[in-house]
Amino acid sequence: MIVFAAAVALLGSLFFALGAAFQQHEASGAAGPGMLALLRRPRWLIGTGAVALGGGLHIVALSAGPLIVVQPMGVASLLFALPIAAALHGRKPSGGELIAAAVVGAGLIGLVMLVPPTAPTPSLDDTSSLGLLSGAVLTALVCFGLARSIGGAGRTALLAVAAGVMYGACATITRVIVDGDGHLWLLTVMPIPVLAALGLLQRAYAGRHFAVAYATLQLTDPLTAVACGALLLGEPLPRNLAAAVVAALVAGAGTVALARTTPLTG
Hints:
This is Integral membrane protein. This protein is mainly α. The chain has one domain (2-259). 76% of the residues lie in helices and 0% in strands. Helix 5 runs antiparallel to helix 6 (95-113), helix 6 packs antiparallel against helix 12 and helix 7 packs antiparallel against helix 8.
């Protein structure tokens, strides 16, 4: 089941990449259009549909495997998204971008290689579920506030961190719902943080640093989910914590390198 979960998550990452590239192409600009304007753009809607399909596959993967396996597989979407997004903007991704993206990928793949093969059935009570979502919202608000005071790649990264934390928390709740003893009433709450994360991500895409936005998202999302899985669901951490820390640092270094590459849009 672990291999099946990883394969489905990998397929989902392809649709995430396609959707992200289309969304960024429509959201990019000095300030970026608002959500209501984006809803009237067919290409943005196509991208959102692709992201939704990727999300459906992600849920299937979460029902078959632990967070620590499923979430890091999203790194593949970074390698897919960069050339797709560059093509939409009429250029090829630079060698520096591809090398930095490969470094991010190597770091996250290293984390996957250290994953234990089994995980307990996830369980989370109502209070912990609401506390997790509240903590994610608070973190996102802090990042959003800091992002308003700076510009450039730093602003893009902070907005992507905010979105990634929200998505990682939502992935944790989703795993409890689909493969544990989570209460279905959580399904009525989930759209709120998901839509908030979507809005934050579009703000990140509105800047010129798509690679930074997407790499930061793909780093923050799995790290948040893995931490939540270990602390709240009792999922095992990587066997070699020192090696896992090194792998995470490698992925972080790749993200920093992406911030130094040429912006995707002019």
